Amino acid sequence: MFYANDNFTKLPESYLFSEVTRRISVYKAEHPESDIIRMDIGDVSMPLGNSVIEAMQKAVEDMASCSTFHGYGPEQGYPFLRELIAENDYQLRGIFAIDAEDIFISDGAKSDIGNLGDIFGRDIKICIAEPAYPVYIDANILDGRKENITLLKCLHENGFKPELPAKPADVIYLCYPNNPTGVALSVEDLKCWVDYALQNRALIIYDSAYEAYVRQPDIARSIYEIEGAEKVAIEVRSFSKTAGFTGVRCGYTVVPKSLDFTFADGRISNLNKMWNRRQSTKFNGVGYIVQKAAAALYTPEGQQEVKALTDCYMSNAGSLREALLKKGFEVVGGENSPYVWFRGNGEKTSWEMFDYLLNKAEISSTPGSGFGQAGEGYLRFTGFNTPEKTRRAIERLIKYL
Ligand code: MLT
Fold first, then answer.
1. Model confidence pLDDT, tens digit, residues 297-346
2. In angstroms, rounded to a whole number, what is the distance separating the alpha carbons of residues 326 and 281?
3. Cis preceding-peptide flag for 180 (omega within 30 of 0)
4. What's the CA gap between 116 and 143, in Å, rounded?
5. Does the CB atom of residue 251 touch ligand 1 within 6 A?
6. Ligand 1 centre distance from Cα of residue 42 (Å)
């Protein structure tokens, strides 16, 4: 007899952004003339750069003739893209511990973060810095680890930076620059975590989907900037926020060959080999056209386009941050991140603030409590809308907050 996965009953009723979208749809249906400015999910608004468009067009043409056609590609990604990533995102930045074989191309960070649990033991202890991107928690709940999760609260009191776990942890999820708070970690901050993992044989899942938004020199962009991290950390990255690929779908995960851990019975396992086996079994790779588009980001024109795009969103986030600070609110983020984390005046819950702004100002935000209890009383705004809509949103925020 078939039984459903009981862990589904342990999840929140709906995924955070599905609920946000549902409430927006209800409002729109009731107010067909509405002019909602979206500042909720981190979806980008600006078009793809020219170098990406041209590379995609060329790749489409390749698919039109027998001699250049591509069918199934390698599950790990095409070598041309893996090599470009290793060289540009790591070696040219002084990180020599990472090479092309450590890099696995995927359809985005969300899938990899959700799937990485396949290579973890069932009973391991998980620590997650909270507020958190909901996928870290939900994916572990689905894998049957709800009871094994400890949350490391990131609050005003600790500068929104997690403290080292009080009890031993086996896997630690960190995301910096942080989603949702926008707070970033310095190289020194991050070193404490790598040292902890090295001393405790813990594994760090480091989500650095927002590294392209780092603007200050002492802030870490990759965990592998820290010596020894290649023995204890997996890094997950995405082209979604870097290059406007939310609709194109491409990212990558770095699983260094030096990541040796043990099975429960003490045998040594190599996580690079395990992830390779997992991907070969359950994934058929990212399309050739998409990987060619991602490769174009590493040309000089592509790099300029990435810089222009991220500068544009950073300017939006900076304006939001300044406007809210000027009104006397507590705000973090927006300095090395496209997210701005805003604390209300304590009278309303996050969802009440969300509903208030949607109804009064026709602005959608993301309720802080959707990222966990540590986010209650906060809202997250994104800088991902166009400069023009962001300017109008700020005018409305000033009026209604
Ligand atoms: C967010 O808004 O937190 C992200 O865009 C969600 C995602 O990347 O899946």
1. 999 999 999 999 999 999 999 999 999 999 999 999 999 999 999 999 99
2. 53
3. yes
4. 10
5. no
6. 5
